[in-house]
Write a structure and sequence with these properties.
- With 163 residues, the chain is of the alpha+beta class.
- The chain has 2 domains: 62 residues, 2-Layer Sandwich (Ribosomal Protein S5, domain 2); 78 residues, Alpha-Beta Plaits (2-Layer Sandwich), CATH 3.30.70.240.
- It is 37% helix and 25% strand.
- Strands 2-3-1-4 form a 4-stranded antiparallel beta sheet, with helices on one face.
- A hairpin with a 3-residue loop joins strand 2 and strand 3.
Length: 163
C-alpha cells in the first residue's frame, strides 16, 4: 500500500492543496496502514494518501510564495512621481533612484511579478511613450494574507478520488 499512498501524496504536491500551485520543502512520513487482501484497492490507498496529506497541510498553515522581480524603470524626470506612485500602488517597494543623462531618472524597485501583467502599456501611458524598463527575477516572498485568502477562495480542490 505504500506506493499507492505515495502516489496520492505526490499528486497533492504537484497540484497543491490550498491554491493549486506545486508545493516544496515538505517531508512526509507514513506511520501506519493496513492492507486487506479483498478490500484493498490501489485507488483507495491513493485517495487515502491524498486526503490525509491535505488534512495535514491544512493543519500546518501553509503559505503561498510569489516571485518578486527587480525592476529598473528609466523615465523622463517629469514622470518620476507617476512611476513611483504606480509602483507603490501595485505592492512595489522603491529601492532608489539615480539621475541619468538626458534629464532622465532610473528608478529601482522590487515588485511582485503578478502585478506587472501589462506593464509595458502602463509605462507607455504614464510616460507618454518615453519610459523603458528591465526586470529580472530576484526572490520569492510570502503573499500578503488577503491575497492568500483570495487564492484559497478561488481554488477548487480536486476530489480525493480523482487520480
Amino acid at each position: 500500500f505504500i506506493p499507492a499512498v505515495e502516489k496520492g501524496v505526490k499528486q497533492v504536491l504537484e497540484e497543491g492543496a490550498i491554491a493549486g500551485y506545486p508545493m516544496q520543502d515538505v517531508k512526509v512520513i507514513v506511520y501506519d496502514g493496513k492492507h486487506h487482501p479483498v478490500d484493498s484497492k490501489e485507488v483507495a490507498f491513493v485517495a487515502a494518501g491524498k486526503r490525509a496529506f491535505v488534512n495535514a497541510i491544512t493543519k500546518a498553515r501553509p503559505i503561498v510564495l510569489e516571485p518578486i522581480v527587480k525592476i529598473e524603470v528609466t523615465t523622463p524626470s517629469t514622470s518620476v512621481g507617476d512611476i513611483t506612485g504606480h509602483l507603490s500602488g501595485i505592492r512595489g517597494r522603491i529601492a532608489g533612484s539615480d539621475s541619468v543623462p538626458g534629464n532622465r531618472v532610473k528608478i529601482s524597485a522590487r515588485v511582485p511579478l503578478a502585478e506587472l501583467g501589462d506593464y509595458q502599456t502602463t509605462l507607455k501611458s504614464l510616460t507618454g511613450g518615453e519610459g523603458m524598463f528591465t526586470m529580472e527575477f530576484d526572490h520569492y516572498e510570502t503573499v500578503p494574507q488577503p491575497v492568500q485568502k483570495e487564492l484559497e477562495r478561488s481554488y477548487k480542490q480536486p476530489d480525493a478520488e480523482d487520480s
